């Protein structure tokens, strides 16, 4: 449970405003769509990343983190991909100088998580911000412009 540290989770949720949602989907029945909408409604900046989508929730969707990072200063890379495909995402998160990487429920890849941690990123694995936010009551705080 090394990557479920409550202090790290709290730090990511309270200090990181811009979230790239890797594996974002325009399908409202998909968890990535639900989480993206949830974060956006709380005032986080969300940036959809999926090479197979053009727009999601009326927002431009980027084909890669590198492309998204041209327009956005990405704080958190939130990963909705199969565990076997996340090493490249972790490497890209490091390359764009993200502050954190968040592996969603069921996305466990200790090699990718360890690489990100060694590179100085905060790492959260196998949970969801929609589950963790109510635990710390971050929803009651409004972002300043």
Compact description:
This protein is α/β, with parallel strands linked by helices and 145 residues long.
Summed over residues and divided by their number, the pLDDT gives a mean of: 93
What is the N-to-C order of secondary-structure elements (H for helix, E for strand)? HEHEEEHEHEHEH
Structure classification: alpha/beta
Tell me the strand percentage band: 15-25%
**How many domains, in number, for the residues?**
1
For the record, what CATH class applies?
Alpha Beta
Radius of gyration: 14 Å
Straight-line distance between termini = 35 Å
Q: Say what the CATH topology is.
A: Rossmann fold
Shape: globular
**What is the tally of helical segments?**
6
Largest sheet: 5 strands, parallel
In CATH, the homologous superfamily goes by the name NAD(P)-binding Rossmann-like Domain
Strand-helix topology:
Elements: H1 6-15, E1 18-22, H2 31-41, E2 45-49, E3 55-56, E4 59-60, H3 65-71, E5 76-79, H4 87-95, E6 100-103, H5 110-118, E7 122-125, H6 129-136
Parallel strand pairs: 1-2, 1-5, 5-6, 6-7
Antiparallel strand pairs: 3-4
Helix pairs in contact: 4-5
Describe this entry's structure for a reader:
The protein has 145 residues and is α/β, with parallel strands linked by helices. It contains six helices and seven strands; from the N terminus they run H-E-H-E-E-E-H-E-H-E-H-E-H. It has a single domain, classed as 3-Layer(aba) Sandwich (Rossmann fold). Strands 2-1-5-6-7 form a five-stranded parallel sheet, with helices on both faces. Strands 3-4 form a two-stranded antiparallel sheet. Helix 4 (87-95) packs parallel to helix 5. The mean pLDDT is 93.
